[in-house]
């Protein structure tokens, strides 16, 4: 798998509606996973989107999610840039360079879905997400 660079949009509770709208606009295949899908079935936000991805026939990739509980919506900054793939060395190298001199909000480490993931804001104020896919065992 090659590494991918794409926008990742943040929503305050209406990610499902927004991602379905973008699918109507651009076409393609939409995958939506809720917080309940990842072991939080009893949580008040179980039906909210933890991760959504739209892949279009034109080659566009758009990702989005509802803000997790406790994370405030940041008006004017409803996006991050997402880097994803399975090349551990390449993506870890990007992470190290992007986070240097910036701030780390989620350390680059294994997450409940099995991938290594982290979030940082670079020294210029641009928010980044890095996801390193792990082969299924």
From TrEMBL:
It holds the Pfam family Glyoxalase. Residues 4-130 form the Glyoxalase/fosfomycin resistance/dioxygenase domain. Residues 60-83 are annotated as: Disordered. CDD domains: PhnB_like. InterPro entries: Glyas_Bleomycin-R_OHBP_Dase, Glyas_Fos-R_dOase_dom, PhnB-like. This is Glyoxalase/fosfomycin resistance/dioxygenase domain-containing protein. It comes from Streptomyces swartbergensis. The lineage of its organism: Bacteria, Bacillati, Actinomycetota, Actinomycetes, Kitasatosporales.
């Amino acid at each position: 798998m090659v590494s991918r660079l794409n926008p990742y949009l943040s929503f305050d509770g209406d990610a499902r509606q927004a991602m379905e709208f973008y699918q109507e606009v651009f076409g393609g295949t939409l995958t939506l996973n809720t917080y309940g899908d990842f072991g939080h079935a009893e949580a008040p936000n179980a039906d909210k989107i933890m991760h959504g991805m739209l892949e279009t026939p034109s080659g566009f990739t758009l990702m989005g999610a509802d803000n997790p509980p406790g994370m405030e919506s940041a008006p004017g900054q409803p996006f991050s840039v997402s880097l994803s793939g399975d090349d551990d060395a390449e993506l870890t190298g990007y992470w190290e360079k992007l986070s240097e001199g910036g701030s780390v909000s989620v350390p680059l480490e294994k997450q409940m879905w099995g991938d290594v993931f982290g979030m940082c804001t670079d020294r210029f104020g641009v928010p980044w997400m890095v996801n390193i896919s792990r082969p299924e065992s």
